[in-house]
Write a structure and sequence with these properties.
Helices cover 33% and strands 25% of the residues. The strands form five sheets. A three-stranded mixed β-sheet has the order 2-1-12, with no helix packed on it. A three-stranded antiparallel β-sheet has the order 7-4-10. Strands 3-11 form a two-stranded antiparallel ribbon. It has 205 residues and is α+β, with helices and mostly antiparallel strands.
């Protein structure tokens, strides 16, 4: 896919008067195209990545082509696979062990949900002091509660990882059209773009 991106002469020097150009690919063009496709809600399904599942696994199972892995990355605006794709259970444990001296140590305190009837008085997951309290009327009595739970560094990373597991997928019946149209939009016919600074990079199609 990168071969289809426009070439860009980018100034790696500090001066626009005496530039030092490097030929690179204009990856900003890729980002600009995303809103057009994401606006077509009927094209996508929400998907939860399973433990240890890779983009190649999903592309092979859904699209019968592991090389359509890039479709998943583009649609979900993933530019750094190692940081933005969910880690497997083993990878997450190894990551936490390398990042923290003690992954099971307390990182912070978060609220637990408090409801009065069908109304949520305190939503879960808000970072608060360990001494946080709430006083409310339950319809009969005045209640003082301390809806707080400790959260470890590992639990924090686990929550972040869980958020990454929810991705969007192009429905299989639309994937060939998506690929063809996306390649067509990226086609640049040998065009060379010039950027003395990041502000001057042309991202138009």
């Amino acid at each position: 896919m990168l071969r289809r991106l426009p070439n860009l002469l980018y100034n790696i020097g500090t001066s626009s008067i005496d530039p030092k150009f490097l030929v690179a690919k204009n990856i900003w063009r890729r980002a600009e195209l995303l809103p057009e496709y994401k606006g077509s809600v009927s094209m996508f399904n929400e998907y939860v990545v399973q433990d240890g599942e890779t983009p190649e696994d999903i592309a092979l199972r859904l699209y019968k082509n592991p090389f359509y892995n890039w479709v998943l990355l583009v649609i979900n605006d993933i530019t750094n696979f190692h940081e933005q794709w969910p880690r497997s259970s083993q990878q997450l444990q190894e990551y936490c062990n390398s990042k923290y001296d003690n992954p099971q140590a307390t990182k912070d305190y978060v609220t637990t949900e408090v409801k009065r009837g069908n109304d949520i008085i305190v939503p879960a997951g808000k970072v608060v002091p360990s001494t946080f309290q709430i006083v409310y009327w339950d319809g009969t009595n005045t209640v003082t509660a301390n809806p707080v739970a400790s959260r470890t560094f590992f639990q924090f990373e686990e929550e972040l990882n869980s958020q990454k597991e929810r991705i969007q997928l192009v429905k299989p019946k639309f994937v060939e059209d998506f690929v063809e149209n996306y390649y067509m939009r990226l086609s640049y016919k040998g065009k060379l773009e010039l950027g003395l600074t990041t502000a001057e990079i042309n991202m138009s199609s």
